[in-house]
Write a structure and sequence with these properties.
- The structure is a single chain.
- This protein is an alpha/beta fold and about 250 residues long.
- It contains seven helices and nine strands.
- It has helices at about 5-30, 40-50, 65-70, 105-115, 130-135, 150-160, 200-205, and strands at about 95, 100, 120-125, 140-145, 170, 185-190, 205-215, 220-230, 235-245.
- Strands 5-4-3-6-7-8-9 form a seven-stranded mixed sheet. A two-stranded antiparallel sheet has the order 1-2.
- Strand 7 and strand 8 form a beta hairpin.
- Helix 2 (about 40-50) crosses helix 4 (about 105-115).
- The radius of gyration is 23 Å and the shape is globular.
- It starts with 5 loop residues before the first helix and ends in a 9-residue tail after the last strand.
- It binds S-adenosyl-L-homocysteine.
- S-adenosyl-L-homocysteine binds next to strand 2, helix 5 and strand 4.
Amino acid sequence: MSPRHPALLILLFTGLAIAALPTGLARAEDESPTPPDPHAAARERLVADSIEAGPFGRTPVKDPAVLAAMRSVKRHLFVPPGLRSEAYRDRPLPIGHGQTISQPYIVAYMTEALQVGPDATVLEIGTGSGYQAAVLAAIVKKVYSIEIIPPLAEEGAANLKAAGVANVETRTGDGYHGWKEHAPYDGIVVTAAAAHIPPPLIEQLKPGGRMVIPVGPPLQTQSLMLVEKREDGSVSQRNVMPVRFVPLTRGK
Ligand code: SAH
């Protein structure tokens, strides 16, 4: 029998419409209100206790835009599925390939140090999980992020997409050279420890712009350097905090 016969077609469509009805109703119910986030309470505790309060002699993070971003970005979407229960502890976590997602307090501190607003364009070196990029993306207009390990670059981009972050552009490459095409940047954040501050990154910083970058030997305590390019183009730098980051590796 062929469903081309008009009467059969009508029957078929009626059947489809009836079959579709309960699903449609169920979907409308599911969509409002939005399902509760099972991690919301843990995320709030993390931000309030470990970032905003500034415990253990740490400088508290005060910028309202940074705190709002830390409250809204779901870190559990950027850690390996088996580590989700650990996502809202204030510590780095392994993300594979010998790399780590940074500690939330450090992400918040570095983001605040950039002093960037809604019109800013920011460059990140070391996409990793994509978490730092997502936090920046909640505050600024556009984030460009470079990752040297190809499978991590893919994972970071996939995590950002799954989290619904649309204003981050990623690419695979050696971030030492920056991303000239979109320069100059209002802010540059380097999330791996460099032996020295890469001159191309200083070049790609806008006058009035800021860069945060860990500088020092691999696998030891490094200095988080805050680099400022003044309006006249002169550059100042100061050590703001001891940190421990994975090393900035170099492309061949
Ligand atoms: N911002 C990341 C932190 C990842 S750890 C996050 O929020 O998860 C630092 C990352 O820097 C690693 O993924 C590492 O592979 C990457 N990296 C190291 N050297 C690099 C380089 N020269 N260019 C770009 N990325 C680099």
